[in-house]
């Protein structure tokens, strides 16, 4: 079915791809209501304080005036009138304040309604088979994935407790990723020694990576803080020459920053502040470390569970939007149950930079069948992908015309694709 056959095709596709930015719009919408509530709250706070101060002042003045009277003498008529006037004014003030407070409550509950309005609370319609995670066949798989995730994060104790409680069978405990995670956690705490040790072991593979310099810089600044600038300079002389050519400016900045490491040094200029903040520098180095180490060891930076959750969270709004459009009366009337009102190939949702790299199953755009071991996806010379059965059907002897671009090529030039 071609895309032009769909009566709202353009709007439909645009909507599909706008779902992720739409989440941002939702956040902005809620933020606006929240800002309104906060402005009102702050205004009321100021106003209430001023009212109370005024009342206290008036009470104190009256008290002073009455205290000046000789003891046990009755109040003059003017004084008792002033007392009743003040009491009435206090009552009025209290009543005004409680009215303001009630109005504030309405503004606050509007934020709750705004959250309900801007976000989808119930995703059950797009995941009608969610309960299949809990059936006898899938439950152990889920539990293994959770245990694996815990071990990967270096949370051995939690992992052990989970394995014992769920009885999900043995899960590999020793995990390279957990080691990396521990190095990254130490970096975030400002300690680069474990990461440096790892980087030393992989020095040959890290020749073109900024990681060794980043770690040595952190170590030099740490030495400057803990053992004095002299020790740091000694370290710099020892290790920095190897990095001088590639990181000249960063190296100069790091050496200059040492001047502010000494105890009692004046506050550093703004552009050195980042270098002298061990936590900020450590968090940044930790991220770089995990990224570089995962690339080097060919590890996915996320556990299968974390990857699935991240990709799922990104894809849910798009699925929800799609579902809403599929159940629209116009669409229901025009299409049969088993058909999608748009090209399957266009059903992609961008998972973003860090969430990308996940492949859903491949469905052949020609035969509209899910690829399998016997009918795998094949990449044509032009870059288009179809299933092997479709390729065999389309091939005319030694010639094949791509159904999409339509480049002429030989069927033997097509290559099988493997999704990992
Ligand atoms: Zn092509």
Topology:
Layout: H1 9-17, H2 19-67, H3 77-118, H4 139-152, H5 156-166, H6 176-188, H7 193-201, H8 211-227, H9 229-239, H10 248-257, H11 270-273, H12 278-297, H13 304-326, H14 329-334, H15 352-355, E1 377-379, E2 385-387, H16 388-394, E3 400-401, E4 408-409, E5 415-416
The structure holds zinc ion (ZN).
Description:
Helix 1 (9-17) packs antiparallel against helix 13. This protein folds into three domains: 1-119 and 312-356, Helix Hairpins, CATH 1.10.287; 176-297, no CATH class; 359-420, Herpes Virus-1 (2-Layer Sandwich). The two termini are 30 Å apart. The protein is mostly helical. A three-stranded antiparallel beta sheet has the order 2-1-5. Strands 3-4 form a two-stranded antiparallel ribbon. It is 59% helix and 3% strand. The structure holds zinc ion. Zinc ion is lined by residues 380, 382, 384, 402, 404-405, 407.
Keywords:
three-stranded antiparallel sheet, binds zinc ion, 5 strands, Herpes Virus-1, mainly alpha, 3 domains, extended, disordered N terminus
């Amino acid at each position: 079915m071609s895309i032009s056959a769909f009566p709202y095709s353009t709007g439909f596709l645009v909507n599909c791809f706008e779902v992720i930015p739409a989440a941002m719009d939702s956040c902005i919408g809620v933020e606006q209501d929240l800002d309104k509530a906060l402005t009102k709250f702050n205004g009321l706070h100021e106003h209430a304080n001023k009212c109370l101060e005024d009342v206290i002042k008036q009470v104190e003045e009256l008290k002073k005036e009455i205290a000046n009277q000789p003891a046990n003498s009755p109040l003059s008529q003017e004084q008792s009138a002033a007392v009743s006037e003040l009491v009435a004014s206090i009552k009025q003030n209290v009543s005004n304040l409680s009215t303001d407070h009630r109005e504030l409550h309405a503004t606050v509950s509007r934020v709750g309604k705004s959250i309900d309005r801007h976000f989808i609370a119930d995703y059950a319609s797009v995941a009608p088979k969610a309960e299949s995670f809990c059936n006898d066949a899938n439950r152990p798989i889920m539990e293994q994935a959770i245990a694996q995730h815990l071990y990967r994060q270096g949370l051995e104790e939690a992992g052990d407790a989970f394995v014992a409680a769920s009885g999900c069978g043995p899960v590999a405990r020793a995990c390279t990723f957990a080691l990396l995670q521990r190095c990254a956690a130490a970096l975030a705490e400002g300690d680069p020694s474990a990461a440096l040790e790892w980087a030393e072991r992989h020095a040959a593979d890290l020749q073109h990576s900024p990681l060794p310099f980043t770690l040595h810089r952190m170590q030099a600044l740490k030495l400057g803080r803990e053992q004095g600038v002299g020790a740091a300079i000694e370290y710099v002389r020892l290790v920095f020459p190897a990095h001088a050519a590639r990181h000249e400016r960063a190296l100069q900045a790091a050496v200059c920053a040492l001047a502010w490491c000494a105890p009692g040094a004046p506050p550093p200029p703004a552009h050195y502040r980042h270098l002298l903040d061990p936590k900020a520098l450590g968090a940044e180095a930790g991220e770089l470390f995990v990224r570089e180490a995962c690339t080097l060891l060919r590890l996915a930076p996320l556990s299968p569970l974390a990857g699935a959750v991240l990709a799922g969270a990104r894809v849910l709004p798009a699925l929800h939007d799609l579902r809403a459009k599929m159940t629209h009366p116009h669409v229901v009337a025009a299409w049969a149950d088993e058909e999608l009102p748009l090209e399957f190939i266009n059903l992609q949702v961008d998972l973003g930079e860090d969430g990308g790299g996940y492949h859903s199953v491949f469905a052949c755009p020609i035969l509209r069948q899910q690829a399998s071991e016997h009918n795998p996806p094949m990449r044509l010379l032009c870059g288009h992908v179809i299933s092997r059965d479709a390729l065999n059907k389309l091939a005319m002897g030694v010639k094949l015309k791509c159904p999409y671009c339509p480049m002429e090529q030989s069927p033997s030039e097509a290559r099988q694709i493997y999704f990992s």
